[in-house]
Write a structure and sequence with these properties.
Pfam families: DUF2387. This protein is an all-beta fold. The protein contains no helices and five strands. It has a five-stranded antiparallel sheet, with no helix packed on it.
Length: about 60
């Protein structure tokens, strides 16, 4: 499985920078901290958009 690291991302659990890796399993994107193991998954497409005006969002990830 190929990991893509997210530059400048900070883990919400251990606060380490540049340790968040994005992987894709069964058409589901998952972000994992390689330092502490914290995992977040992208919610289903039916989840309501949470963007505010004049902001751009790549995706919303929630703890698994």
């Amino acid at each position: 499985m190929k990991k893509r690291f997210i530059a400048g991302a900070i883990c919400p659990k251990c606060k380490a920078m540049d340790t968040m890796a994005l992987t894709k399993e069964n058409n589901l994107e998952k972000v994992t901290c390689v330092s502490c193991g914290e995992q977040m998954v992208q919610p289903e497409s039916h989840v309501e958009k949470a963007t505010r005006d004049n902001e751009q969002m790549i995706g919303i990830f929630t703890p698994e």
